[in-house]
Amino acid sequence: MNIKYSRFYNGTEKTPFYGNGAGKKDAVAKQEFSTTNQHGSSIQAAKDVRPQYGDSVAVEFSKDGIEALVEGRKGSLLPDDQGTMQTAKAKNEAFQKEIQQIDNTLNDLPAYSGLYGADKAVAAALENCSRKEQGFVYDIIRQNFLIENSGSMTPEERQANISLGMKKAEYAAENMISEDSRESFLNAMESIAKLASAGKDDSSGTMDYGAAKGKYLGHGSGLVRTTDTVDMMRSMDQAAYEEYQKLGRNNDGGISALKYLTNWFVDSANKNPHMVDNYERKSEEYVEKNVKGQKLDTTFDGLKTGSKEEFLKGLKAFQKSNPDFLASMISRELASKYWGV
Q1: Rounded Cα–Cα distance for residues 235 and 247 (Å)
Q2: From CA 104, how far away is CA 326, in angstroms rounded?
Q3: What is the mean pLDDT of residues 278-282?
Q4: What is the Cα–Cα distance from 97 to 110, expressed in whole angstroms?
C-alpha cells in the first residue's frame, strides 16, 4: 500500500458527482495507470495481470477512497498541511488494521497437484459444495501442501504445515463432503500431502515436487487431463526452459515466449515422437519411487476436527504452547475468512 504508483499514472476520468442530496460532490471516479513506466519498468502486480488485461489497468475507488482523493485535492496522496497529514495518518492506521483481517488467498479457483487420479477425486468430491467450501479445500493444496517457496520455513515447519493441511482435510471431510465421497477425498488429499512431503527445495527455497504438472479441461467428475507443455520443457530441456523464461520477460504480452514454446514443441516432437509418453512415464516412476511410501508428519494429529469450534480451540492452544513455531502460517489460518473469526 506504500508503493508510489505516480510514475504509472496515465490520466483521470471524472464523473459529475457522488452521494445523494445537497451533500453530493464532484468526484474522481477512476484513475488509469499503465502497467509500465516511461522506462519500461513494471510493478509486480502488473506483470501478473498483463497477460489477461493488456497494457493498462483501471483502478476503481470505494466511496471512502473517493472522499480521500477529493478532499486531499487533485487526488494527491501527499498531505499539504499538518492537520491533513494527521488525519490521513489516522485513517491509514485504521485502514491497515482493517486489511489485516482480509484473507486474499482464499478463493475457489482449483489447485491441482499433477496426480490425475487424486485431482479428479478431489474435484468430484467438491462438485456439490459451495464456492466458499471449495476455496477452503483448494487453499489446503496451495498453502499447506504444494507451496511454491519454502524460504520462510524451516524443514520441520514445512512438514508440520503439511500435517496441518491434513487435519484441515479431515475437517472438510467431516463437515463439507458427502458421506459417499469422504473416503476417496481423504485418500486423494493424503496422496497430494505425500507428494508435498517428498518435495525438494533449491538454495532459494523454490520447491520442486517431481510430478508432472497437469493441465485440465472440464471440472468435477468430468475433469480431463492434458499435457502441460511448459512443465515438460522444464523437465526435459532446461536450456530451452531458461530461454522461454527470458522471453517471457519481454514487454510484448508474452507473444515471443508463446512462439518459442510452440516451435520448441513441434521441433522436439519431430525429433522424439515419444516425448510426451516419456515425460508422463518419468513422472509416474518418480511417484512410485519417492511418493507412495512417504510418512507424513504428525505435529497436528491431536487437533479435533468435528466442528469449527473444536478445530480452532486446538489450533489456538497449539499456538500458545509453541509461539515461535510456524507462527505466520498459524496466524494466517486463524485470520482466514473461512472461519469468520
Answers
A1: 18
A2: 20
A3: 87
A4: 30
pLDDT tens digits, one per residue of 13-59: 554 544 455 545 444 444 454 555 444 444 455 454 444 444 445 55
Residue predicted with more confidence, 79 or 206: 206
**Full-model pTM:** 0.64
State the pLDDT at residue 60.
Answer: 53
- Find, among 141, 151, 272, 146, the residue nearest to 202 by Cα: 151
DSSP-derived pairing of the beta strands 9-18 and 214-217: unpaired
Task: Check: CB of residue 137 under 8 Å from CB of residue 169.
Answer: yes
Give the chain's largest Cα–Cα span: 75
Q: What is the pLDDT of residues 54-71, one digit of tens each?
A: 444 555 545 555 555 445
Question: What is residue 233's predicted lDDT score, i.e. its pLDDT?
Answer: 92
Model confidence at 256: pLDDT above 60? yes
Per DSSP bridges, beta strands 25-34 and 9-18 are antiparallel
Phi-psi group of 54: left, alpha or beta (phi > 0 → left; psi -120 to 50 → alpha; rest → beta): left
Instruction: Catalogue the E-assigned strands of the chain.
Output: 9-18, 25-34, 56-60, 200-201, 207-208, 214-217, 224-227
Phi first, then psi, for residue 69 (nearest 5°) are -70, -45
